[in-house]
Write a structure and sequence with these properties.
about 300 residues, Elongation Factor Tu (Ef-tu), domain 3, about 35% helix, alpha/beta, six-stranded antiparallel beta barrel, Rossmann fold, 2 domains, elongated, 13 strands
């Protein structure tokens, strides 16, 4: 970072780049602009929990590409991704600060969230960081907790909401819709042949998946953003089809096979159900499409 003038750094994991993270990043961007400096992020990969507690069930909210785009959208110009290792986690807070932050990053200013911890067994707190920054003549900013109404914005809560189908709350906490990124693959042709509704079958890159059900969504393709309705589940009406994520894009007739698309989840519509026939399911799907059209008409 020797050639970077007035580097202002946000430190953290930034999983989801949610509203709390965005508050930190706005501070970084604004201060860097005032100092004619560079807004930067210092983060880790893999997530520390994967190294320190590999048995713990855990899913990242975003893919690396989604995280990169979200950081760039927040004004970040440089993102340093530090490989997280057991050796790194064993450093004392003081050694971590002097070796990783002071010498490597050479920041003029640091921004972190209220719950930031660092060093061996997370023994370094924001109080420790402020003391070390003062000794090194580095500005230190601690951003207070962020709330949506009375709900604390936190990555763990976002994961819980997405997994139970609460994509509307997840959208409020993230400041944008939760989205799945993936490639359109060949399906079994059931949508078009048996239901009269063509769907894009998605091979997703994300670890975190929404709970099983039908959702009002919008789908981003290379040609634009379109209203859509998406099924996440096991297609119980058709035995043996297995788990899939399929989206029907309204009034859309382009071939998306092998293309990368992003499906943004807006509202949970209904649970996945087993119907007595393909015809019965087709009627419900038409209602899903009508509900999706109404939603997008109201939220255009």
């Amino acid at each position: 970072m020797k050639n970077t003038k007035n580097a202002v750094f946000a430190l953290g994991i930034f999983d989801g780049v949610h509203r709390g993270h965005q508050k930190i990043l706005r501070g970084v961007s604004d201060e860097a602009k005032a100092l004619q400096g560079t807004p930067c992020v210092y983060t880790f990969n893999p997530h520390p929990i994967r190294i320190l507690s590999p048995e713990t069930p855990f899913s990242l909210i975003q893919t690396p590409d989604q995280k990169k785009r979200a950081l760039e959208a927040a004004g970040i110009q440089i993102c340093i991704v530090e490989p997280f290792t057991k050796q790194l986690s064993a450093l004392s807070p003081e050694d971590f600060f002097h070796n990783q932050i002071q010498k490597q990053l050479q920041p003029v200013s640091i921004w972190v969230g209220y719950d930031f911890t660092f060093g061996h067994k997370r023994s370094g707190t924001v109080k420790t960081l402020k003391k070390l920054c003062a000794e090194a003549n580095i500005r230190c900013h601690i951003v207070e907790p962020q709330y949506v109404e009375e709900t604390l914005v936190h990555s763990k809560l976002i994961r819980e909401q997405v997994q139970r189908g609460g994509v509307e709350m997840a959208k409020e906490l993230l400041g944008r819709p939760f989205a799945l990124l993936g490639t359109v693959i060949r399906g079994q042709g059931i949508g078009g042949k048996k239901l009269g509704v063509h769907t894009a079958n998605l091979s997703v890159e994300n670890e975190l998946l929404p709970g099983i059900g039908v959702y009002i969504t919008q789908t981003r393709t290379s040609s634009g953003l379109y209203p859509s309705v998406t099924n996440v589940g096991n297609n119980p009406t058709f035995e043996g089809k297995g788990f899939s994520i399929e989206t029907h894009i309204l009034n859309f007739d382009q071939n998306l096979k092998d293309q990368k698309i992003e499906v943004e989840f807006l509202r949970w519509l209904r649970p996945e159900e087993k119907f007595s026939s393909a015809e019965a399911l087709a009627k419900v799907i038409q209602n899903d499409i009508l509900e999706t059209e109404r939603y997008h008409g109201l939220h255009a």
